[in-house]
Amino acid sequence: MSVAQYFQTMDYAPAPEDDQAARAWLERHGASFGHFIGGAWRAGVSGEQFTVHAPSTGEVLAQVAQGGAPDIDAAVAAARAAQPAWLAAGGARRARHLYALARMVQRHSRLFAVLEALDNGKPIRETRDLDVPLVARHFLHHAGWAQLQETEFAGWAPLGVIGQIVPWNFPLLMLAWKVAPAIALGNCVVLKPAEYTPLTALLFAELASQAGLPDGVLNVVTGDGRTGAALVEHPDVQKIAFTGSTEVGRSIRAATAGTGKSLTLELGGKSPFIVFEDADLDGAVEGVVDAIWFNQGQVCCAGSRLLVQEGIEARFIAKLKRRMATLRVGPSLDKTIDMGAIVDPVQLARIESLVQAGRREGCDVWQPSEVALPEIGGSYYPPTLVTNVAPASTLAQEEIFGPVLTAMSFRTLDEAVALANNTRYGLAASVWSETIGRALDIAPQLACGVVWINATNLFDASVGFGGYRESGYGREGGREGAYEYLKAAGWGKGALREAMPIAAPAAAANERLADYASGTGFVDRTAKLFIGGKQARADGGDSRAVHAPSGAPIGEVADGNRKDVRDAVSAARGASKWAQMSGHARAQVLYFLAENLSARADEFAAQLARRTECDAAAAEREVDASISRLFTYAAWADKYDGAVHMPPLRGVALAMNEPLGVVGIACPDEAPLLALISLVGPALALGNRVVVLPSESCPLMATDLYQVVETSDVPAGTLNIVTGARDALLPALAKHDDVDALWCFGLARHSMLVERESIGNLKRTFVDHGRRLDWFDRSAEGMTFLRHAAQVKNIWIPYGD
Ligand code: NAI
């Protein structure tokens, strides 16, 4: 036999990793665990436990406490008690603790890797080479943010107690993604691991305590969805950070609506893997392996939809099938396997039933006959390729969360973009082309938070991760991830006023008004809506009277309804030109707008004085502040431009700030001109199109604006103004699936309505919970608003051969 023949006939022998240390840890605890609260183990109050299995074999690993409300109470109390001292310790001290945690993970890396593989069923190769090193990296990186917090996040404060709920697909890595930034920046945490995979979180909490992490900074309460729900509902939790299914994400959004809790959601995905005909095909085949068979496809950003350019489709699929035949499925501790077990029989059944649905819909399902599944009691599913898939079919739309790849073809780049974006999700995408211009051309057109060019599933603590659309909101990692655990210091109670004082009508203002009255005819004229660049009558033809605070009639505005909101949203959706314009071009338009407003400042001040019955000086001050704010956002338009990250690989990641799309904005009653400009300004500056509901009591300041808008080169549909009853218009905006974000300032009940009604398409919301902002204050301008007006897309570009 020749050496070549010998190699071809060689087979793999099992190469099991030694699991003694992990077994010894389980035994030390009698394979029975309580919660880890306030630096100590505590039995669950109810005494109820659930069983944790090894997915590879079905073997019982441990009994773990099922947490209830009393356990959550105790954990939140411990976190709350610990937080002041943890914050007072200062960033430099916290940095030392996080650095110690990174070292602790490195010292125990083998134990963590083995326990994670046992508990989750994923290959030890992955836990050893990816999960655990990335966990250490996350703590190390965030030690740095703690060290730099005072200077880099000056003016920002931690939120307090954070409730974190993580899934089972990356149990320890998700813990790190959540815990590291939260505690680095001075918060304390109650973490609820997933019920299938709680063990590494418990090990981590125990070892963190031994490494000197103060009691109560990190608390772990185990249990199922009921435990998670109790954490979500706890009144002393200031923020919920969740990773998991879109369905549960929605229920958490509904449960936290109106409570003032911050929320970040990392949800599902159906990410495209796009291969152009000029791609390195062998490289792309290996990419597919990492995209969909990594962690058995149980990855939120798995490249589960293969889109191949038509000319290479047959060749690529043939290569892929050959590669699939060489994949090895086996128990997680075998170092030679490519794919391990599915986490639980429930998940396995879900995958099977989805694939069955695909078969019924006429898809072709292919599984390599060469790949044998181990018969050792675990939950296994073979690598699967599905072709003949219609874009609207179940398998092309539903997240399968298993090792199942669906394949489709496209002809042109535009078609690839259309197919890629044809999903309610927007987490990630992978683009394969040797032409850098093409790859960088398509990346901004993909509606998702992460794009990997000629790569897939790259993660790093310095690069933000998170989705667009129904994949959730908020970012983890990077500077943008750090902000998710902070609040602007001025955003708290300090800078907020109970009510804006309304002064008595000033004689001087009334006198000056007489100069303008003849031209505008206050009472006779009904101000129309402003939709698609044109003044429009309200659909119902109705109007509503507007009064000054004293009750004096001052005019009429159109009484818009749901249909008008729909028209305004559709005009805004169509005005995509604004998003495509350069920041430079947008800056020019906004400068022009500010100049034109400035030219009419006296008129606006006089109208404002009359309509709000404030004195002339106050009105002038508000108009001046509005003009100045508009100039400020004109200045920002070409400056809020992202960053280049340098993660530890040969390559860069471009963090680009992109507009959200169509933003609905409901303005408060106070400071009717300044508040409107303060909200519309940042949204427009960053390329969003806006549907604004102006102050309900003083809408005429907004309707006066359209003459200014019309003369300022603002493209039609970019800014739309709908007047009418807030209680009728706001739900229509909140429920509209073509509105990407909704900002609401004014009454607390409106904030709650917005948060509750926005769950359909998981809009990004930005609300004041009825705490009146001082619109003249510096805190009503700048970063907080810009951050809400953009979403970050990270484009990874590895380079070299
Ligand atoms: P899930 O969303 O139910 O579970 C994730 C976490 O949320 C777990 O810790 C769970 O205990 C907790 N949870 C469940 N209900 C809750 C509630 N009402 N309030 C608060 N916390 C709650 O995910 P599951 O059932 O394990 O998986 C189902 C599907 O979800 C998967 O097939 C997959 O499609 C998707 N999924 C997506 C993940 C992602 O990373 N995006 C991770 C896990 C699942």
Automatic annotation (TrEMBL):
> Matching Pfam families, A to Z?
Aldedh (PF00171)
Q: Which residues form the active site?
A: 266
Q: What positions does the domain Aldehyde dehydrogenase occupy?
A: 41-487, 545-768
Q: Does the keyword Secreted apply?
A: no
The protein's matches in PROSITE patterns, at most eight in alphabetical order, are given as: ALDEHYDE_DEHYDR_GLU
Kindly state which keywords UniProt assigns to this record, in alphabetical order: Oxidoreductase
**InterPro entries, alphabetically?**
Ald_DH/histidinol_DH, Ald_DH_C, Ald_DH_CS_GLU, Ald_DH_N, Aldehyde_DH, Aldehyde_DH_dom
Note the SUPFAM superfamilies from the entry. Answer: ALDH-like (SSF53720)
Q: Name one GO molecular function term.
A: oxidoreductase activity, acting on the aldehyde or oxo group of donors, NAD or NADP as acceptor
**Which family is this sequence assigned to?**
Belongs to the aldehyde dehydrogenase family.
Q: Which PANTHER family match?
A: ALDEHYDE DEHYDROGENASE-RELATED (PTHR11699)
What protein does this entry describe?
Aldehyde dehydrogenase
Q: Which organism is it from?
A: Trinickia dabaoshanensis
